[in-house]
Amino acid sequence: MSDEPALAPPSTTAFAGLRARPVLWAVLPGLVLVAVGLSVFLSVLDAVQEQDDLWALDEPVLTWLVAHRTPAWTVVLAAITFVTGPVVLPIIVGVACLVWGLLSHEWWRPALLAGAMIASTLISLAVKGLVGRERPPEDAMLVPGAETTASFPSGHTIGTATLLLVAGYLVCSRTPSVARIVAWGVATVVGTALVALSRLYLGYHFLTDVVAAVALAVVVLGVVSVVDRLHTGPPSGPIGAGRDRGPSTPTTQRPG
């Protein structure tokens, strides 16, 4: 018989190695989100620059939506795009963060949400300036000439997606439950999709603009997750126990 110890499978060893590094284990989900978001964004950007892949759907989707406008949907989607625009949405977020902080007597999460929204705006403006993509033709816009900034990515979409994703993470990571996570996930998908649809339907953006915006919002979520985990420390205890727990009561061990 051999006295050499049995070697663990490579996958098990790698998994155990990550678990043995609590800080790395804590920030790993955020790093994965950043990598996935950047990968999707760069893929869409390449499609726009090379005019292939997803870019091929830009004109057909825009043309179909513009051709199928109805008065009722126009009113609804115009209202959605107004509320999620650069004037109204920052006011809503600012007031919500202020109320959140005052009611909870905690400012870390409200500040993190506000910071994420500012970061998403700066990222959107920077990418618009670097890519410099023209908007759809004015005859496709509901209000010709209403949008004059660059088209890629959609600022409305990245703002809404960032708000819903980051707020959902900040709430669900503290008090996780299956029902809460599913409900917020559905709200995030529906809310982001409605805003993205409004930008396409009203003729202000192409499909690739809104897809790139969602990808960048995922990147922002990943960064927020990393920053938050580094600030609060790696989670301890079973999932669902929460991370913001009060001091534990010491136990006395009896002899024998």
Low-confidence stretches: 236-256
Strand content: under 5%
In total, how many domains does the architecture comprise? Answer: 1
Largest sheet: none
Q: Helices and strands: which structural class?
A: mainly alpha
Question: What characteristics describe this protein?
Answer:
256 residues, globular, disordered C terminus, 67% helix
Describe, in short, the structure shown.
This protein has nine helices and no strands. The protein has 256 residues and is an all-alpha fold. It is globular, with a radius of gyration of 23 Å.
Write the layout of secondary structure elements.
Elements: H1 10-19, H2 22-50, H3 58-67, H4 71-83, H5 88-104, H6 108-131, H7 155-172, H8 178-201, H9 207-232
Helix pairs in contact: 2-9, 4-8, 5-6, 6-7, 6-9, 7-8, 7-9, 8-9
What does this structure look like?
This protein is mainly alpha-helical and 256 residues long. The chain has one domain (27-226). The chain is built from nine helices and no strands. It has helices at 10-19, 22-50, 58-67, 71-83, 88-104, 108-131, 155-172, 178-201, 207-232. Residues 236-256 have low confidence and may be disordered.
